[in-house]
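Following up on my earlier thread - several people asked me to post the actual chain instead of describing it. Fair enough. Here it is, all 373 residues.
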Amino acid sequence: MKDVERRLVKVVRKLVRRVLGIMAREKVLVIGNPVYPSRLVAEAFYQESLRMGSSATLLWQKARTMEKPMEQTVREAIVANPDVVIAASQKSLGHDSAGRLKPYRGSSGEAFNNILYFLRAQKKLRAFWFPLPCLERFVETASVDYDRMGRLSLAIKKRVDRAEKVRIRTKYGTDLVLVKDDRQARCNYDGDSSRPGSGGNLPMGEVFVTPVAGGAHQGDVVVDVSLFIKGRTYSVGKEPIYLRVEDGFVKEIKGGRVARILSAAVKEAEERPIKLHKEGRLSKIMAKTNSRNARNIGEVAVGVNPKAKIVGDLIEDEKVYGTAHIAIGAGQYDGDPAFIHVDCVINRPEVSLIYPSGKEEVILKGRKFQFSY
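Reply from S.P.:
Thanks for posting it. Predicted structure:
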């Protein structure tokens, strides 16, 4: 057995027992692709879940991007409402085509276009999903001090929950103010992922909040690290992307080749819901909502994983300690649906919180959090 595979076994054991908190008699659904390294990782989670006395099921589906729908058997297994879902995919679990056409309604009327996000939001299960482009990086970024990361995440969350607005600035030109309203922040890991409704993607290590959809967000963003479009990470390199945000939506996208790819993806996400409505496959109100939200700011977050590095892989780049990222499109955890969700990573930001009193507190500067925890 290779050294990295031995380390994987140890990491998965820690994740299953300490982080995910899988217990005896729980129903665990593990989904993977029958190719390396997804197959290896999915089997490791399956075997360790069995060792904990759970009732575990392992399902395979072909590797796919977010542009492809998940297999119907996979969706039905999720609908069956297991206690835990672990999706160790090569790239993506795939989208929920049924949910896109007829979104699921939450208890407060919010709409979700993916059954996994819906059931998690309704606290019916806990879920963990992650692409696996590199086994070595997965093992490294999952080998962190979870106690310390959990304490930091909770300290950030408590501050964000009290705030009214989030402000991000960089020396390269980013200056964006986002309205949070009463929406609560979420921790990718807060010290306890054994509760229904908890979980997130791996590697863990971000604290995020969904700004008000179409809220009074104003300012400029300079994306200088990477972004994730249609299942692929694009490193920005020497051609940063300039975003102009007005009245809650991205009004302008400027830059080089990657900026043009982003602009085309956003335009397609605006037009596709309208086309589906004309074909009689999507209601008028949901077509308008999905089309409008294609330019929404669906997330703002900070990274807190000390083992993560900027490697040109979005799933790791966005977790790097002391970075920030925003997402264009769906606020997928708060029922703001769109056919797109593009995470955009910003290096060395100054992040501050503006409280209802008007006081502004800087919480992150120079890759260092400005408080003890």
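Residues 257-278 form the longest helix (22 residues). That should answer part of your original question.
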